[in-house]
Specification:
The chain has 279 residues and is of the alpha/beta class. It folds into two domains: 6-162, HUPs (Rossmann fold, 3-Layer(aba) Sandwich); 175-278, 2-Layer Sandwich (Pantoate--beta-alanine Ligase, Chain: A,domain 2). The chain has nine helices and seven strands; from the N terminus they run αβαβαααβαβαααβββ. It has a three-stranded antiparallel beta sheet with strand order 5-6-7, with helices on one face. Strands 1-2 form a two-stranded parallel ribbon. It has a two-stranded parallel sheet with strand order 3-4. The two termini are 31 Å apart. The mean pLDDT is 94. Belongs to the pantothenate synthetase family. It catalyses: (R)-pantoate + beta-alanine + ATP = (R)-pantothenate + AMP + diphosphate + H(+). Pathway: Cofactor biosynthesis; (R)-pantothenate biosynthesis; (R)-pantothenate from (R)-pantoate and beta-alanine: step 1/1. GO terms for molecular function: ATP binding; pantoate-beta-alanine ligase activity.
């Protein structure tokens, strides 16, 4: 999507460590946005992005086998020849959906989102024909969906999931973090604190999902009216089924989404997502 930050660069670095040639794709995908979301204001910083990738290439030691060899920056017309209106019922053409995974978690609030992700990723995979693709753990549900897509559509491509890059205080890096200034940036860390509080309870022996999830709701609720929790959930990583008990060794995904609300006129609501893997 562009607006590259350290999280994106970590994906390119990981790819360079395992491959001779790395292709980075940058495309702000309209199919991932609804009419009420921030497509027009989404940060677009192509020149800065290219500079960061050049700097990455220059910084890689000689024993790293690969470099970023190409950056693919298609136009909307190239990716969607029939056009791509934001109203889903007006869209025509071929689209990809991964059912039922796309309807869960993020899909509850953004029912259009993973249809757009699956469609554009299928197109990009067909165009670039990669041996491996690199995604960040921050978008955990997305990685589950992409894994299923690769399997079901028989792409000869391996999925690599790279750990989340975080700010010093723990906030997961995101292109939308540029919207957070002053007090709103301070309260944004609540989502990570809520997840860490659940992780601590789990490590101290609590296994009941209902108790663990209530702890996350409590942490966000105590932060006051500046933030609003969308969801917090515990899911197994295969079909994203909710779990009632978190057993050791199951690798359960603890995920949350939270809105940081406007404080001043002209500010928009910023939606954050984050996750941790328990056991």
């Amino acid at each position: 999507m562009g607006a590259l930050h350290a999280g994106h660069i970590s994906l390119a670095r990981a790819a360079a460590s395992e491959n001779t040639h790395v292709v980075v794709t940058i495309f702000v995908n309209p199919a991932q946005f609804s009419p009420t979301e921030d497509l027009t204001s989404y940060p677009k910083t192509l020149e800065k992005d290219l500079k960061k990738l050049d700097e990455l290439n220059s910084s890689l030691p000689d024993d790293v086998p690969g470099r970023v060899s190409a950056v693919f920056v298609p136009t909307v017309a190239e990716m969607y020849p029939a056009g791509i209106p934001l109203v889903r019922d007006q869209q025509v053409g071929t689209f990809v959906e991964v059912i039922p995974l796309s309807a869960k978690l993020e899909g509850g609030t953004r029912p259009h989102f993973f249809r757009g992700v699956a469609t554009v990723c299928s197109k990009l995979f067909n165009i670039t024909n990669p041996n491996k693709v690199y995604f960040g753990q921050k978008d955990a549900q997305q990685t589950v969906i992409i894994r299923r897509l690769l399997l079901d559509l028989q792409f000869d491509t391996e999925l690599r999931v790279i750990p989340t890059e975080r700010e010093k205080d723990g906030l997961a890096m995101s292109s939308r973090n540029v919207y957070l200034k002053g007090r709103r940036r301070e309260v944004a860390i609540v989502i990570y604190k809520a997840l860490k509080a659940v992780e601590e309870m789990y490590e101290n022996g609590e296994k009941r999902a209902s108790v663990l999830l209530e702890k996350a709701r409590e942490v966000v609720g105590n932060a006051g009216s500046e933030v609003k929790l969308d969801y917090v959930s515990l899911n197994e990583p295969g079909l994203l089924e909710e779990v009632e008990v978190v057993e050791k060794g199951r690798g359960v995904i603890l995920s949350a989404a939270m809105w940081v609300l406007p404080r001043e006129e002209g500010e928009g609501t910023v939606r954050l997502i984050d996750n941790l893997v328990l056991s």
